[in-house]
Write a structure and sequence with these properties.
Structural class: mainly alpha
Strand content: under 5%
Largest sheet: none
Distance between the termini: 35 Å
Number of helices: 3
Radius of gyration: 14 Å
Helix content: over 70%
Length: 53
């Protein structure tokens, strides 16, 4: 179930949301990075909060 959600449902939802965003490549890249790789941005934020390297 988790694989279906991660590899089928999430990309479809991200594609639908990207249709609402203006067609600026840098904005779309940011949207894709945040929505398709959510754990990476969490790691960066929490590392910064914890004053890690």
């Amino acid at each position: 179930m988790l694989c279906i959600l991660n590899y089928i449902a999430v990309p479809i939802v991200v594609w639908l949301l990207s249709q609402l965003v203006p067609d600026y490549p840098s904005l779309l890249l940011g949207l894709y990075l945040v929505l398709l790789t959510p754990c990476i941005d969490y790691v960066i934020v929490f590392t910064a909060i914890g004053r890690g390297n």
